[in-house]
Task: inverse folding
């Protein structure tokens, strides 16, 4: 998470949504060198806007706050969370609500889940690992830190978009070899990230049919701590309808985190 905002990738699992997979998109024409240079300049400005070297030097992050789901536009009871991240690919999120504790942890190609309601401790399934990797792909930190280059993805400039009264966003797109793409919008004035857009397919709730959906993360209320600027509210939308909100109460950067925090415990009794 280069743009140090907690990925909370496990929140998608916590929502109990249907399995989502990468949507295959048609490959666009190869962008021109001028187009790529424009996109690179926008990312460079955004990196400086969120803290420059201070941001790039973040190795770990610990955040706390509340996660709220929405149903038919109505917010449900929020769950308190604490999220631990060790870059680039380790994350542990703990949820507490109604006296129940849930822990979801990912480390590279592995992961485990503690279900406090049923008192079970299990390895994550392949679909859940895929979901974590997808959230890594769509994260702002992925685009600003350049992790997408390891997958031979292509960067391009899309253009400017309206972003409210007298506001516009610059938009860049990262397209992966498998056709999956992510668009990132950055405020023209401040340069900070404001929106993430991508498409996935999922199984409909009332049938086995697959449908393509558009997902968006809206990043709001940026706050600067230790020279690093990050949003303290992240709203997620599917096909224009809000499905969740992350609201942060605190964020700590570069707090030492032991590898044992992300390792699966031998049994529930040894869970910390």
Result:
């Amino acid at each position: 998470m280069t743009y140090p905002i907690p990925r909370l990738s496990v929140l998608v699992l916590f929502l109990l949504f249907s399995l989502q997979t990468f949507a295959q998109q048609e490959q666009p024409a190869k962008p021109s060198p001028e187009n790529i240079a424009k996109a690179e300049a926008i990312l460079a400005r955004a990196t400086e806007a969120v803290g420059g070297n201070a941001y790039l030097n973040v190795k770990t992050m610990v955040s706390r706050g509340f996660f709220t789901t929405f149903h038919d536009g109505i917010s449900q009871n929020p769950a308190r969370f604490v999220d631990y991240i060790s870059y680039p690919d380790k994350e542990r999120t703990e949820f507490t609500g109604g006296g129940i504790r849930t822990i979801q942890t990912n480390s590279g190609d592995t992961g485990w889940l503690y279900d406090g309601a049923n008192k079970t401790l299990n390895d994550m399934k392949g679909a859940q690992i895929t979901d974590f990797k997808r959230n890594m792909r769509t994260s702002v930190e992925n685009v600003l830190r350049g992790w997408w280059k390891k997958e031979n993805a292509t960067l391009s400039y899309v253009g400017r978009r309206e972003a409210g009264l007298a506001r516009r966003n610059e938009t860049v797109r990262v397209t992966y070899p498998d056709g999956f793409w992510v668009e990132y919008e950055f405020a023209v004035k401040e340069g900070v990230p404001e929106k993430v857009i991508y498409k996935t397919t999922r199984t409909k709730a009332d049938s086995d049919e697959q449908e393509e959906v558009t997902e968006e993360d809206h990043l709001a209320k940026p706050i600067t701590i230790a020279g690093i600027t990050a949003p303290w509210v992240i709203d997620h939308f599917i096909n224009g309808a809000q499905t969740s909100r992350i609201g942060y109460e605190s964020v700590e950067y570069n707090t030492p985190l032991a590898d044992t925090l992300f390792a699966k415990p031998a049994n529930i009794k040894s869970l910390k």
